[in-house]
Amino acid sequence: METPSWLNEEFMERALRYSENDDTIHVTDISTKPATNKGDNYTSEMVRVNVNFHREINKKIIKENRSIIVKLGLTMDGIHKDLIEQAGLFDTEINFMTTTLKDMTSILKDSKLGGNCLFTQNKDPSVLVIEDLAPLGFRMADRQTGLDLEHCILAMKGLAKFHASSVAVCEKTPHYKDMYNKGIFNSNNPPEMTKFFTNGMKSLAKAVAEWPELDESYSKKLMEISEIAYDRASECRKRNDNEFNVINHGDFWVNNMLFKYDENGKVIDHIFVDFQLCVYGSPAVDINYFLNTSPSETVLINHKDKIIDIYLSVLTATMKKLGCKTHPPTLADLKKAMRQTELYGFLSACTVLPLVLVDKNDAQNLEEIMGQDDSEFNNKAYECKTYKTTMVRRLPQWRAMGLLDL
After folding, report:
1. Are the beta carbons of 245 and 279 closer than 8 angstroms?
2. Total-model pTM
3. Distance between CA atoms of 95 and 123, rounded to whole angstroms?
4. pLDDT band at residue 125, thresholds of 50, 70 and 90?
5. Is 203 exposed, middle or buried (0-12, 13-18, 19+ CB in 10 A)?
6. Which end of the chain has fewer CB within 10 Å, C or N?
7. For residue range 345-373, what is the model confidence (pLDDT) as tens digits?
8. Dihedral sign for Cα atoms in the order 399, 220, 340, 165
């Protein structure tokens, strides 16, 4: 992407002066480069800005250098840009990072959930200026290999603390529950979002027709439910105030988390990024989405129960530590909620997982995937051998649960 002309020394000086509350800051030079690769981020553009500046401290001029992430609304016109704007994704993230996330982090005290938000601009264009987590040692894991058990455990411990702190802040600030009411599966989302999932299901149906391991009825059933799967997932996600609810991250997959490693390469910490799809409801929403998009297949086959047990243990302990009045779910409650939202995980595996596993050379942006008309929609991700192996194993399980039936 080409760096927009407004992203200059003057803009960064304004952002830094605001975030530091220091009008002596003077930016002398900036350099920019893309912060993500193609296929790593679908709903925004990320720029890493290296900023040289100086300020006055005790009548001395102090020179400083800082790396900062600037997240911006899409610069190219098209379906993709319109979709992001209509869905209000930036508004959700700005609201979350400037209010709720701060409250959650403050109440936890010992855990950093995300990067600090330094500056925001709601329109013309929509912009978030965020702390760069790379200098703190955080980096993205390899989405293609799938997370191993150690990464999954850290991710689920982090998710448990995220959820527990959201319960605590919602008890103190109940209106947060109503602020996050959209999410990725919601019948009120723009039609183009439904189109992505509907056409993804059709692409899978066409791919399955070429897989000799599954009989032709699988392709037929997937094609039949393609038009209604999104609405069904939206329905199963709806919040029930009689059950245990949290603020879900809402898009909790491998690319929306960063990990930190020690000098021996051992993973030691986890942090969240991208809060555009936060949604209040059952924690099973995040759990099912994560399990169906992010762990390696080996981990999912052998350690699924362990991962869920660790999540619940940390959730319960953290809620107790924070003095929550709300009772945490039992294991039976949580597994019941996961069964009720299984369709959420199923649709994620049918449409999001191929984007996770696709070879970096075949990665497409959302405009390339969605910009084609319905008859030609052809996401290269469905040709991935790893994806095929995964779905050949999972589809019979979902069929047995009735998820492929009209």
Report:
1. no
2. 0.92
3. 14
4. confident
5. buried
6. C
7. 999 999 999 988 887 777 766 666 665 55
8. positive
Cα 70 to Cα 60: distance, rounded to the nearest angstrom = 29
Helix, strand and coil in the chain, % to nearest 5: 50, 15, 35
Asked if 193 contacts 161 with a C-beta cutoff of 8 angstroms, the reply is no
**Residue 215 maps to a domain:** yes
Which residues form the domain of 286?
139-400
For residue 3, give the DSSP letter.
P
116 in any annotated domain: no
Tell whether 151 is covered by a domain: yes
Q: Which two tokens stand for residue 148?
A: 């191993």
CB-based contact 150:267 (threshold 8 Å): yes
Count of CB atoms within 10 A of residue 262's CB? 10
Does the residue 10 lie in any domain? no
SS3 361: helix
CATH code for the domain of 163: 3.90.1200
Q: What is the pLDDT of residues 307-349, one digit of tens each?
A: 999 999 999 999 999 999 999 999 999 999 999 999 999 999 9
Q: What are phi and psi of 254, to 5 degrees?
A: -55, -35
Residue 97: both structure tokens together: 């990072």
Element (H, E) at 175: none
Q: For tokens 């508004």, what's the residue?
A: 91
Q: Rounded to an integer, what distance in angstroms lies between the CA atom of residue 331 and that of residue 244?
A: 12
**DSSP-assigned letter for residue 181:** B
Nearest CA to 96 out of 248, 234, 240 is that of: 248
Residue 49 to residues 9, 94, 170, Cα–Cα distance (Å):
10, 19, 35
Give the closest residue to 200 by CA, choosing from 363, 40, 38, 380: 380
In what helix (H) or strand (E) does residue 395 lie, and over which residues does it extend?
Answer: helix 385-400
| CA 14 remoteness from chain centre | 29
